[in-house]
Amino acid sequence: MKIAFLGPNATFTDIAVRELFPNDEGIPYITIPDCLDAVIKDEVDACVVPLENALEGSVNITLDYLIHEMNLPILAEVTAPIRQHLMVHPDHQHDWQQIEVIYSHSHAIAQCHKFLHHQCKGMKRISVTSTAAAAKYVLEHPEIKAAAIANELAAKEYGLTIAKADIHDFDFNHTRFIVLAKQPIEMVNQTLQVAGNKTTLMITLPDDDRSGALHQVLSAFAWRKLNLSKIESRPTKTGLGNYFFIVDIEMSMDDVLIPGAIAELEALGSTVKVLGSYPYYHINKK
Ligand SMILES: O=C(O)C(=O)C[C@]1(C(=O)O)C=C[C@@H](O)C=C1
User: Fold this and answer.
1) Is 119 found in the same domain as 48?
2) Domain ACT spans what residues (predicted)?
């Protein structure tokens, strides 16, 4: 199988692909929407994209594309530990404190905010398309006093020297990635154990702006004892103050409880779309 990921080689998403699909071919794309488009256009069988980070929250571009631009089911989710390192071209390994500019993915920069604030005063931060793209750029530009924030695999792949390891602000730095495909696909590394199952719904509240609407929605889950592990709002992009809710239910789609909750929400005037019902996995390797 061909699996699209946010490239180039050695991004965190690439690491997730290598863990999930060790025997398949990963194909790097420049942006997250490019990965999703590649599935739609049948250039690949599936894609893996980041969805949420424990320190920085949702990857909004992923959520927005899923909601507004395409109709691809979530087939699986994997959570992986994220270690960020500051790395430099070997020419600059002894003078990294003279670095003038730090490149990385915006999420990675945000995960290292405290380190950057306290130890990198006056250094510019520039967001690029991924952590590995930053590492590649630093390799290709030894003439610039630059560093990248990326993972250990990227340091190896692009021949950079780690100047400061583990610069993320909190030890528990994890990112959730999702697998999307048009058709069910042969899952995954058999050595990964299923940690549980989830169903993700997108809910739009009734447009009459009635008070207590969100409370009514949540009650439909509460009295059925459906455990919600996440509730998140995103703009509908139709007007200020208009939001969707994305809800994760901690079980797979059944014949009674979830369909019952959906029917109740629809009777209240909400619209509901099932974004996927899927197993989730944990990668423990740091
Ligand atoms: O740039 C990468 O290496 C990615 O895979 C993207 C990404 C993200 O979008 O959050 C993935 C995991 C980390 O949280 C940092 C960056």
Assistant:
1) no
2) 202-279
Domain that holds residue 214: 195-279
Residue 130 near ligand 1, beta carbon < 6 Å: yes
Q: Is the pLDDT of residue 284 over 70?
A: yes
CA 218, distance to chain mean position in Å, is 25
Domain assignment present for residue 199? The answer is yes
- Report ipTM (2 d.p.): 0.96
* pTM assigned to the model: 0.94
User: Which CATH number goes with the domain that contains 158?
Assistant: 3.40.190.10
- In the numeric block, which tokens belong to residue 79? 């959570």
Whose C-alpha lies nearest to ligand 1, atom 12? 12
Q: How far apart are CA 260 and CA 262, in angstroms?
A: 5
Domain count along the chain: 3
Specify if 243 maps to a domain: yes
Tell me, using a 6 A CB cutoff, whether residue 62 lines ligand 1. no
The total number of residues written for the chain in this structure: 286
Measured from the Cα of 16, ligand 1's closest atom is 5
Q: How far is the CA of 49 from the centre of ligand 1 (A)?
A: 9
The burial class, CB within 10 Å (0-12 / 13-18 / 19+), for 189 is: middle
pLDDT in tens, 198-239: 999 999 988 776 788 889 999 999 999 999 999 999 888 888
Helix axes 257-267, 213-222, angle to 10 degrees: 160
Tell which of 180, 205, 222 closes a domain.
180
